[in-house]
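User: Predict the full complex structure for these chains.
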Amino acid sequence: MSQQVNTRVEDTSPVVGSSLWQDAWQRLKKNKLAMLGVVILLIIILVSTFGPLLSSYSYDQINLDRNSEPPSWEHWFGTDQLGRDILVRTLVGGRISLMVGIIATAVSFVIGVTYGAISGYFGGYIDELMMRIVDIIYSLPYLFLVIVLLAFFTKSIFMLFFILGGVSWLTMARIVRGQVLSIKNQEFIEAARAVGVETPMIIFRHVIPNTLGPVIVYTTLTIPSAMLSEAFLSFLGLGVQPPLASWGTMVNDGVEAIAVYPWQLIFPGLLMAVTLFSLNFLGDGLRDALDPQMRKD
Amino acid sequence: MHKIKTAIVCVLIAIIVPACISASAYFGKITPRQEQILHYSNAAEPRSLDPHKTSGIPEGNIIMSLIDRLTDYDAKTLEPRPAIAERWEAVDKAKKWIFYLRKNVFWTNKRPVTAHDFVWAWQRGIDPKTATPYAGLLYYVKNGEAISQGKMAPTELGIKAIDDYTLEVEMERPTAFFIKMTPHFVFSPLPRETVEKYGDKWATPENIVSCGAFKLAEHKPYDKVLLVKNPDYWDAANVKLDKAYFYPIDDNPTNVNLYKAGELDVIQSGGIPLSFIKTLRKKKDYVGGAFFTTCYYSLNIKRKPLDDVRVRRALNMAIDKASITDKLIAKGDLPATSLVPPGLSGYPKVNGDSYNTQQAKKLMAEAGFPDGKGFPTITIYFNTLEANRQIAEAIQRMWKETLGISAELQNEEWQTFTARRERREFDIARESWTGDYLDPDTFLNLFANDNPNNHSGWINEEYKNLLQEANQEPDEVKRNEMLAKVEKILLDEAVIIPIYFYALSYMQKPYVDGWYPNLFDIHPLKSVSINTNWQPEDNLSKK
Amino acid sequence: MLKLIIRRLLGMIPVLFIIITLTFFLIRLAPGNPFANDKAFPEEVIQALNKQYGLDKPLHIQYFNYITELAKGNLGPSTRYAGKTVNEMIAEHLPTSLALGLIAYGFALILGVSIGIISSLRQNSSLDYLSMAIAMFGISIPSFVLGPLLVIVFSLTLFWLPPARWGEPKHLILPALTLSAIYIAYIARLTRSGMLEVLRADYIRTARAKGLTESVVVLRHALRGGIIPVVSFTGPALTFLLAGTIVVEKIFVIPGLGRIFIEAANSRDYFVVMGLTLFVSILLVIMNLLVDIVIGLLDPRISYK
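Assistant: Here is the predicted structure of the three-chain assembly.
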């Protein structure tokens, strides 16, 4: 028991701390699935960024004579109901969806983890107050929040991120808090306290790293919901505006045509799914790589 | 892992595609029901079954089966047919109307329906305390508008019972087309004792007293409304259906699924997803036809550069409407150059500007924007709907290619959009209008001065005066000519960009009889029946 | 424990009060009004309607009136459905959402936890990867895609189940399946990671060292701690399921609270939106209280002082 406490305290001392990330990277590199995820993600990012430049079609080029055509040599992914090339539209849409996924997740990660950790660590009235604030934000009708913000502020991509990030951290905060509650009284935390480590240091160096398992898992779950929320927000007039599209809006529109023009759903949907899978493998790899207990083995 | 997923997707495609696009002449199950029961997809949950508390088509479909009016719509032509009123006559150039009522019409509480029921009901309808959404139609009756504004008592309304079975209606002005409005549910009679006893809750299955071909048997909100045949109805011998179910389904793909599975017999017009139209149009149970709705863009003529009629005309002429209706929507809609939809007997076709890119460019140059140079970015606003978006995207592109101007598109949630339109905070806003009665006036009065549905900011005294003059003209032919002139003023000023006239678009099982396509998509259940012996044609030919 | 419950329930009151107040003014700030219509009603009709529902008074008076009525348990009238009260509407539609939500979540809980446990016990085996891939599948396919897919397969191709509607047990299966998919996925992943943490803890090693059978170790000892993230997740998740699910109710034409809410929001049916928001808030607070109690029972190390 005491042995373990020692390891933990050492683990998080500054010197060893810097090697924590190096260690993690070393371990991550060995995880084939995680690396496959990284490679696929890089390919998708590259293709979304530069792919549209290579195509002879543009995302908004309408050709009503050739609407809803199945995949062919000219249009690899087929055309949509306005005769636009789905391949180009999917790639361009990927830029938006990837950005949305990454930023919403980052916000949820930073705010949610910090907030949850503080709440859980201090407990008592602070915890009570902080969690009630989460409850309140949770309970406000999100739809109206968006409608009102749209009515009073000009639409912009920042507002989209603000709104997406603004709610995605709530569940994260709850999960982290739950985790922290269960570990904060464990011996290694008390030992750190006993040797006089400052509170912020305890939280960020000792508490949070031990909640990373569920956090990373939940993060990989946040990304798809952020991408789909973006489609919902486009519906309200925020998010991408036509003729631009995102994966979320393309999937949304494609569902209606699922039985008639399945390619309008399948290609953007597939690309989105592959991205989510890759992110997920990466997430699992990261989780394992960062797991303090795994390191010990 | 990706292979697994791809495999799953492939399997799914293999299942889905043949399942959905089958070669059959009909779509889905076509074995006739063996009972006289109709299952209808009715778009939305009725807001109320009280004729004075609602304005929607879903409610109207139910109310009209529950409560007979003076007249009823002809199932095919929508012309008024005798219902409670056996016959009627217009007096004094249609300043007054006399209705002679049948003596064999009874409320479900066994009391006879009399002229007094109409008097009380219409007075209630115009009473500002009732706040009837469709009060506007009662404004044609004498003192209607003044009563609604609280300037007179409801008893001052121009309606009186000469005796129990003779009703006299006095109009505000001579109104020859009043009779065409009378089948509308806002002109229903009401059972005073029941309404007064139960107040807001009188139109529930437990309390309601009605006098129509059907009775209200069940109403489960957001689930279904069940009507059953009224055995005491005056014309019960001609009513064939025993039961009719109305389902509030607002999801179009669900409509199609339920129809395919044979759980719906008819889908209301507009209830089919856009993407299905091209496939379903080839089926024998698809029904098209003319509909009384115009889709148009309102131009905010108070804003530059839309205050210039040349710009407005150029924008209109640069849109290839035929390619939108034929290639994009492809459900048989007609490209529009005017406001009033075709299909009104006797009303001449009024022609506005048609598609002409050369002329459009020329007008734009004259207005000071050659090849779009110096033209500000304008925004097209529309409420979020896939069809609205696709049309806007197509128009955006056409303007760019023909006129060299850039338009932005902004979709909005419906309320936000409606509020914006009301405040006239737009350059261009999407609109559609469905007529309330079979007369050009139901469209043309949109642009008479104080109509709250005129969002363009365009006010024209000549237009208003000519319209009022035409409406008082008793001679049908003369009146139509005058109305056509009124419409021409609107089109010459290019206040709106008419885009297309809606087509009906619905599915109807081949074993449903007596359900005809018409301009309102209104279908009196009285004439509907199930042909339990129906068989597909190829079966018949084999025998 | 009793003290905790009482304190939390008392603490609920100010929270609910803040939620009501914020929501009240928030929804009034939104553009639109309850009597907006495709065909605009005449001006005098709108005025009469506003008067009828007390919406013509200054906003702070309306707020005061609302709170006063609320204190009597009256959630107000619906402006969309003439003659209906919000109390009636919740009473009418809650049982539907309750039935659907509980069945879907119960199913998700059983399946998700089982998958999660199996995965964690066989970490990095192909079984683990397969389960997690299926879980990921559940997460990446949103319900508005999964629902129609299930309908196409089970209703329109195999003809086993009705494509939509409500009332009989057979109507329940496809919507419950659609709803539970994402929760199965979430729960499986959360269980797996929670179990992985716990399985390496010392007390589990001790339990194993004592010679307890694997199933006892896993189900009695490890699961207690490993399931905590799932329990935390259950609070908000179950709340949202019970409050009605907009997409699934729409696709399957189910008369639940989700459709009521979206319809009310679209038509600015102020009192209905308020009533449902309040209902969800109370549900959420109660759920979270239950969650904390369950976590306390599962994990004696957590103290609530």
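The CA atoms of residues 78 and 246 of chain B lie 22 Å apart.
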